[in-house]
Amino acid sequence: MYTEKVMDHFQNPRNVGEIEDADGVGEVGNVKCGDIMRIYLKVEDNVIKDIKFRTFGCGAAIATSSVITEMAVDKTIDEALELTNKQVAEELGGLPPVKMHCSNLAADALKTAIEDYKKNNK
Ligand code: FES
Ligand code: FES
User: Fold this and answer.
1) What is the CA radius of gyration of the chain?
2) What is the interface pTM, i.e. ipTM, of the complex?
3) Which residues form the NIF system FeS cluster assembly NifU N-terminal domain (predicted)?
4) Which of 14, 17, 66, 117 is the most exposed, fewest CB within 10 Å of its CB?
């Protein structure tokens, strides 16, 4: 059902944790399943320098959170805002159709964290 890359990110998730003095925090809940994801950002000169996540959710939610942190780090916030759930799923070599909504959670949490950063830095 899952690709090797999904299993790898599920079993060894990257960038798990919290950032105490985060510049932006985004939390979203998935209306379909009730899973929750929180993303913390450290931003310098508009570039994402550090990113951590906590996910209370299924294996696909953990894998997509993990891989989106790798995709977003060192990107400008505008580049990171353009990351889509489809790209996240592709990066993992695909997700089973019933698990596509899990990748929405990762993309939405990242967007919410960036919006929070922008709000804090007006
Ligand atoms: Fe709980 Fe899948 S959402 S086992
Ligand atoms: Fe809820 Fe995957 S089943 S995010």
Assistant:
1) 13
2) 0.68
3) 1-121
4) 17
The predicted-structure confidence for 50-94, as pLDDT tens digits, reads as follows: 999 999 999 999 999 999 999 999 999 999 999 999 999 999 999
Nearest to 65 by CA among 117, 13, 112, 5: 13
Q: What are phi and psi of 39, to 5 degrees?
A: -120, 135
Q: What is the pLDDT of residue 30?
A: 85
To the query of whether residue 58 is one of the catalytic residues in this protein, the response is: no
Ligand 2: distance of its center to the CA of 74 in Å? Answer: 27
Give me the domains of the chain, ranges plus CATH numbers.
4-120 (3.90.1010.10)
Measured from the CA of 59, which atom of ligand 1 is nearest?
2
